Amino acid sequence: MGIRRLTVQFLLIVFALLAAVTAVSTVTLLVQLRSIVDDVGRRYAVERAEAAASRITGPLQREAALAGKLAGSPVVVRWMRDEQNDEYRRLAFEELASYQRAFVDANYFVAVDASKTYYNQPADGPLVVTHLSRENAGDAWYYATLAAGAELSFNLDYNPTLDRSMVWINCLVQGPDGPIGVAGTGLEITDLISRIVTAGGEETRAMLVDLSGAIIADQDVTVMERNARAGAGSRKITVYDRADSGDDRRALQRLRDDAVAGLSAVDVVDLDGHSSLVAMTAVREIDALLVASVNTDSFISLSDFGGLFLLLVVSVLVAVAILAIIMERLVLRPLEIVTESAREIARGNYELTVPEIGKHEMGRLAGAFNRMAAEISRHTSNLEGLVAERTQALTEANNKVTESIRYARLIQDGVMPTEAILADRLGDFALFHRQRDIVGGDLLFLRDVSAPDGTSSDPSAAFFLAVIDCEGHGVSGALMTMMVDSLLRQITARAGRQTPAAILNELEHALADTLIGHGEGAGGVSGLDIGLCLCSPADGRLVYSGAAMPLFVREPDGSVKTVNGRKRAMRSAHRHRPAPFENQDMHTAGRRFFLITDGFEDQAGGPEGRAFGTSRLKALLADGTPHWQSVFDEYRGEEPQRDDVLALAFTLHEKDGDDG
């Protein structure tokens, strides 16, 4: 009974200590939670503002690039210089129609300076032809664009008739002696603002304001109509009019100053009768500010953490109960066992073994008893049993290593695009991927150009596609693929729509920086073959560049063409400067493309045990739909697989065209 009384005393002391610690922790937690709620709200408001600005600038940048190509089109420039030439006019409007289909809002405009003629092709109507005049206030944008001399500029206005805000993208059209006009397109941002507000939830509101604070895009249509109709003598509704007090208006002014300076600032402001976390960030492309407000009343409150406090109290009670169970099993029972074992030893029962429980007196007594029993056991132990035990231990260790490698295979497969993603982006494709070992050095890479996370739901979005063959097999090759995949993701994420050659150049520099000290001189894996394509379904074009991995192209007539990149592989270090990477630009209509690692061509087999070779490979590709696996296995026969193999055949369903 003395032992049990000691246990009760111990539990009471532990309970008192836990109660004291819980009280202190609760007070500290309340203080921290208040700070966390405020910090999370501020971060959320800034994130909403920056995300909304990004959703606006992304389409603007894409449309601006396309508008720039339109303004630089030789066909359009030739017509603008000789506007009355019927043949030039016909070819120019065919070219403009192709750009119209590519623009998001399917519209374009061209202003010819020589005749002051303004051509506007809306998305859902006939071509509108007017003439520009300095006396017309609505044409002031044109003369301001010429006077500014900027190759690219943006003009934001609201059309009350159409009930929508438009961003006009203006590009100077250059002739031999200077600008000969302006061309571009318009992008509606009213729906864009609506989607931003909807994505933020009911507690989030977003609006666009100009640098003076006047609202130029908002979900409240009446505000936009009033501001659109406000003349020179009328006052527009500003974001400051939404504030409830002078202090709130001054807070908005400070946010505006920080946003103009390039900062994403946030503060608590009372807007429209609600306490809100308001964040501002600049949208420099259109000289505007994005304002995002989060209603703090519906964001997070301390009452949301009531369950957490209840869980804390329950946890204390459960901890005491667990301690009681632990005391029973680790203290009371062992004490009783040791006591009873001592009685048995006193009676002469030496077959008894006692569990060793610590290094205290009872543990030393149990250890002495067990050493005595072990001395007798050693004379009767079976050597065969010891061998079996060692064998089992080795088998278990080997199984663990194999299991770890198999798990690594799951991780390696996880970085590759799934068949569902390939089917969505490529449509018609055939993929054969077989590592020589459980893991290997071949990798398939796919990332959309403009999506922040690398994947897009738009099947016409441009994307990077690469087949990569890293040096090494097994674990070393797999580690190399993971590193290369990570580098490519980083490079393409910040590269935008750079050419494959530029990306490969940056990848080779990154490879050298990453593997410094572990190159050929150190005996480490330090190189790879790669074929990288920039696929543009919307344009019906593909740009290829590579290192030691050609792109095979099956033409509509069934012939197979080899498009070579740089012949030397990409390495972390070269003895001699390799040839520069070059881009190969081509149309995709009617063509089928193939990227294949050298493991397929190098595989030994056939009656004479020779490599599959390039000739057989091209004959296989001429069929257009190769059955990779059956052909590979049939040719290999009983020969072991020499190398990792990855072969991809794909097409892009686009308009017909010829190589540019």
Task: Describe this protein with a few key phrases.
4 domains; disordered C terminus; alpha+beta; Beta-Lactamase; 16 helices; 22% strand; single chain; 660 residues; six-stranded antiparallel sheet; 24 strands
- Named at the architecture level, the CATH assignment of the largest domain is 4-Layer Sandwich
Kindly, what is the distance between the CA atoms of the first and last residues, rounded to a whole number of angstroms?
A: 96 Å
**Could you please say which CATH topology of the largest domain applies here?**
Phosphatase 2c, domain 1
Radius of gyration: 36 Å
Number of distinct helices = 16
Task: Count up the domains.
Answer: 4
Structural class: alpha+beta
**Beta strands, count:** 24
Indicate the low-confidence ranges by residue numbers: 519-523, 656-660
Note the main sheet: 6 strands, antiparallel
Order of strands, main sheet, comes to 3-2-1-6-5-4
Which helices and strands, and how do they pair?
Blueprint: H1 2-71, H2 74-81, H3 86-102, E1 108-112, E2 117-121, E3 128-131, H4 140-148, E4 152-159, E5 164-175, E6 178-188, H5 190-200, E7 204-210, E8 215-217, H6 221-229, H7 246-260, E9 265-271, E10 274-283, E11 288-295, H8 306-346, H9 361-380, H10 383-414, H11 419-426, E12 429-434, E13 442-448, E14 463-470, H12 474-495, H13 500-514, E15 527-536, E16 541-547, E17 551-554, E18 560-563, E19 570-571, E20 584-587, E21 592-596, H14 598-601, E22 604-605, E23 610-611, H15 613-621, H16 628-636, E24 645-650
Antiparallel strand pairs: 1-2, 1-6, 2-3, 4-5, 5-6, 7-8, 7-11, 9-10, 10-11, 12-24, 13-14, 14-15, 15-16, 15-19, 16-20, 17-18, 17-21, 21-24, 22-23
